[in-house]
Amino acid sequence: MKGFSDVTELNGQMISQEQLLRFCNRYQWASKHIKDKDVLELACGGGQGLNLLSEIAKSVTAGDVDNHIVEKAQKNNSKKISISNFSADKIPFEDKSFDAVIIFEAIYYFKDLSLVFEEVNRVLRKDGILMIATANPELYDFTASANSVKYYSASELKKSLDDWFASTQFFGFIDVNDVSFRQKLLRPAKAFMTLLGLVPKTMKSKELLKRFYFGSLIPMPSNISSNTVGYVEPNRFDTKAKHFNYKVIYSLSKKEA
Question: What is the pTM of this model?
């Protein structure tokens, strides 16, 4: 299996301030829903958000399919957070083991999303929740990550979630109308580069492009806290309409009682 180290935000990598905002905000959002709960994060990457979750949750367990990334996550976090190597469609835990499952910026890498949701539903307890954060492919300048299988619009994601969960709420984060003038000016250029296949594939090779598009870069921290970046509440929306303005889609699904 091809690894995901080259396309994952790992500590020490140079990232934009917006990348850090997006990373921190999704974990801050999740922390508002996991108080005193047993939490599982699938495709946890470098695990920079696990410490924040552990301050709120009863317990935190995590895993990733890339063993190299798992080793980094284990080094970044205390031993009280259980982190292991497994696939999201074969979760190695018993039925009804968790109150909440988190999948952040990963569903587009899964070959069969239905199998993942089936497994999530299996390991969730009564009234358990699933929280997802994913990039919005409906933006005209959207660029897919290397190794990705399929990006889901809000309406497509809702259709998949409805097969497994009783209810789902959707939220949008970072309105393109509120970004810097520099980003607004360069969006057509980014869309053109994407169309021609000129956007670099790995995190490292994207650094020059990110400097051009966002400006100065900062190193990705090993761990984030509630104070790393100020929290911005995402905006709830209806999936019946297309959403060309939000960069990030959040969903909060509840299992049937």
Answer: 0.95
